[in-house]
Amino acid sequence: RRISAGLSVLGSSFILWDILRDSSKYVATHHQLVLGISFFDAIGSFASLFGTAPLPKYSGTPGARGSYATCQMLGFFSQVGQTAYYFNLALAVYFWLVICVQCKAKTLLRGRNTLYAGLTLLGVGLALGALPFYTFGFHVCQVLPPPAASSWYPSVFFFIAPLSVVLAGTTLFTILVLLEVRRREKATLRYTSRQYQREGQNNLLWTRKVFWKSLWYLAPFYLTLPVLFAIFFVDITDGTVWMLKLSTLLGSSQGFWNCCVYIYSYRRRGNGDSPRGQSGLRQSGSQIRTSVDTMDSEEVKIQNMRSPTNAAD
Question: What is the rounded CA–CA span in Å between residue 88 and residue 167?
């Protein structure tokens, strides 16, 4: 667990460093949402670096040297780290607004600070509200289901329900983006020659590319959240203890996988990934691929116009 948490902290720290060092990145909504993901994931992963040390001594857990108060602190910061998932959902909605709705930059800039504050208050508020319910079990301190707790309600309210909404919502908006790309590509094929139309219908190159990029984007969710959910519904016995070990390994590795996706996506963008074929498909694919880049540049221009320094110049 400490190894995966350490990798996650390093991955999130790299993303934070890479965005903050470039002024053209951190003023754009796209990258600010990624900053929120990485910042809160670093908090949760850093808490996991302590392993079982914060658990109460009387818990009988190997390596436990803490008390009930340190267990609550560990549970609180782990819960705060889940705010990263809410920013992930907001990022999926952002892609949908830019690609499908074609929302204008001014509209996004107008309400984004309120969105960031709301997501942060939601995550921190749930972490504070869960303070009376943090308990130890399964080598962790968090809101746990029975028999570690007396009721299912805290687990459902503070963990299962919010993260189920995040997982379902992120998947839904990603599918909507994929369907929109498919619709645009098919519309482009109507105005091409019959030869390229047959080839395009068979290949749908940009649809396939967006599909695989969507899988890359969803991979961190499906590598971590389903396993964490499973622990809530499976009795830990000698036959299922492997699930506990898997959850401790993957549950704190979100930042590492996010970093892999981040590096992969920007490496592909730098190399260029435009498929070969007729000019109509290239133009359509280029428009789809550069939608977010264009939105970022427009937001940078608007922010520079609002900047007091630029106004004085």
Answer: 9
User: Taking the CB of residue 49, how many other CB atoms lie within 10 A of it?
Assistant: 16
Please choose, from the candidates 47, 6, 16, 73, the residue with its C-alpha nearest in 3D space to the C-alpha of residue 253.
6
Asked if 158 contacts 79 with a C-beta cutoff of 8 angstroms, the reply is yes
Per-position DSSP letters for 32-81, written without gaps between them: HHHHHHHHHHHHHHHHHTTTTTTSBGGG--TT--B-HHHHHHHHHHHHHH
Q: Is the peptide bond before 146 cis (omega within 30 degrees of 0)?
A: no
Q: What's the predicted TM-score (pTM) here?
A: 0.81
Residue 137 β-bridge partners:
140
Residues with Cβ within 8 Å of 185's Cβ and at least 6 positions away in sequence, in order, are 200, 204, 205, 206, 207, 281, 284, 285
Whether the CB-CB separation of 8 and 78 falls below 8 Å is answered with no
Nearest to 205 by CA among 284, 294, 292, 100: 284
Average pLDDT over every residue of 107-124? 91
Q: Can you give the pLDDT at residue 301?
A: 57
User: What percent of the chain has pLDDT above 90?
Assistant: 22
Q: What is the pLDDT of residues 277-301, one digit of tens each?
A: 444 444 444 444 445 555 555 555 5
**Cα gap 269→25, rounded to integer Å:** 15
pLDDT (tens digit, 9 = 90+) per residue, 234-270? 665 556 566 666 776 777 788 888 888 888 776 665 5
Confidence of residue 109 (pLDDT cuts 50, 70, 90): confident
CA angle (17, 19, 24) in 5-degree steps: 140
Provide DSSP, 12-34.
HHHHHHHHHT-HHHHTSHHHHHH
Total residues found in the chain within this entry: 313
Nearest to 298 by CA among 29, 16, 15: 29
Q: DSSP letter string over 108-155?
A: HHHHHHHHHHHHHHHHHHHHHHTGGGEEEETTEEEE--TTTSS-SHHH
